């Protein structure tokens, strides 16, 4: 149950997108990480910033039920030792407005910057909203990247991480998108994976790995981790990415932590320890 919110959202007549039951795993895991991260860092940094690149409306309804759940931005606002600043980006103006109304009602004192638009196109604006780090005011950011597919461009990760202390939890839509579209995405004329990984060199490696029997989702996950390494992040091995499954036990996506600091990896290990490969993950995050 989130710390500063009623256990479940009350219907409020605002836009509330539907999500699959498995989204609850994501919420529990990410809000646990938010909590561990923000509490552990509160005395070490002057300013802690939470960034949600795919923010949504703040509430969601579990498909085929009347059950409402809090989305990632509200879960981040509700932790015990809150972040000092929040930046929420959302491409859909009506969802962003619903989120803003909910935040104004539930967290009227919070410091939030709303960015409307495609996070890849708005990367500059998002960066501009992050307070500048200096010797007299140290700033640490945590960014949740929750795209519906592998659309997040690596150029955005590069821009956000440039000369900035920032950790990421990234939802890698390896099965719900990449696996289903393997043929399409690996065709010569398709640039989706080039943009996702920020390089075209993966194609030569894929030829090789495929012959060894490596599956496309795993290949992409490892390539992503390797690309993050080029930005100074610790390579997260595939077995430390949290696999989230759908109702019929089909894998859907992986959640991966990227940090330049070993301590964050120990927090991620805590999260993994409390989660299982099946739903539900946790009773109370
Ligand atoms: C899977 S939902 C995640 C919502 C939120 N993180 C949560 O868990 O409650 C993805 C959201 O990203 C938005 N979106 C899709 N593409 C986007 C983009 N390129 N930039 C910003 N938002 C985008 C969608 O409108 C949708 O609300």
Structure description:
- α1 (23-41) crosses α11.
- The protein starts with 17 loop residues before the first strand and ends in an 11-residue tail after the last helix.
- It has a domain at 1-146: Rossmann fold (3-Layer(aba) Sandwich).
- It is α/β, with parallel strands linked by helices and 285 residues long.
- The strands form two sheets. It has a seven-stranded mixed β-sheet, with helices on both faces. Strands 1-3-4 form a three-stranded mixed β-sheet.
- It contains eleven helices and ten strands.
- S-adenosylmethionine is lined by residues 52, 54-56, 60, 71-72, 89-92, 95, 118-120, 146, 148, 151.
SSE map:
Blueprint lengths: L17 E2 L3 H19 L5 E6 L6 E4 L5 E3 L1 H6 L7 E6 L2 H14 L5 E5 L6 H7 L9 E7 L8 H8 L4 E7 L1 H6 L2 H5 L5 H6 L4 H10 L4 H15 L11 E4 L5 E8 L3 H13 L11
Parallel strand pairs: 1-3, 2-5, 2-7, 5-6, 7-8
Antiparallel strand pairs: 3-4, 8-10, 9-10
What attributes characterize this protein structure?
285 residues, alpha/beta, Rossmann fold, seven-stranded mixed beta sheet, three-stranded mixed beta sheet, 11 helices, 38% helix, globular, disordered C terminus, binds S-adenosylmethionine
* Overall form: globular
Major sheet strand order: 6-5-2-7-8-10-9
Q: What is the succession of H and E elements?
A: EHEEEHEHEHEHEHHHHHEEH
Strand content: 15-25%
Architecture (CATH level 2) name of the domain at 1-146: 3-Layer(aba) Sandwich
Mean pLDDT: 93
Biggest β-sheet, characterized?
Answer: 7 strands, mixed
Alpha-carbon distance between the two ends: 6 Å
Q: Which fold name corresponds to the CATH topology of the domain at 1-146?
A: Rossmann fold
Strands, total number: 10
Number of helices: 11
